[in-house]
Design brief:
Elements (H helix, E strand, L loop, with lengths): L3 E5 L4 E4 L1 H9 L3 E6 L2 E3 L23
Antiparallel strand pairs: 1-2, 1-3, 3-4
Length: 63
């Protein structure tokens, strides 16, 4: 998978795998990450969080 550019809370830049990006977002470990259309700021811009535990349907995002 393609790596994603991130900026950590201390200002350091890095490239991470998408799975690591999700963990960093959930842990508030990054200031921003880059999508094809520009930088995204978790907490300000919409980002995917952990799946809702109330949804009972099939998971289709990872198929």
């Amino acid at each position: 998978m393609k790596e994603v550019s991130v900026v950590y809370q201390d200002g350091m830049m890095d490239m991470v795998e998408p799975q690591a990006l999700q963990r960093l977002i959930n842990a508030d470990g990054i200031i921003k990450f880059q999508r094809a259309d520009g930088w995204v700021y978790p907490g300000i811009d919409p980002v995917r969080r952990l799946p809702s535990t109330t949804y009972q349907g099939p998971e289709r995002r990872f198929e």
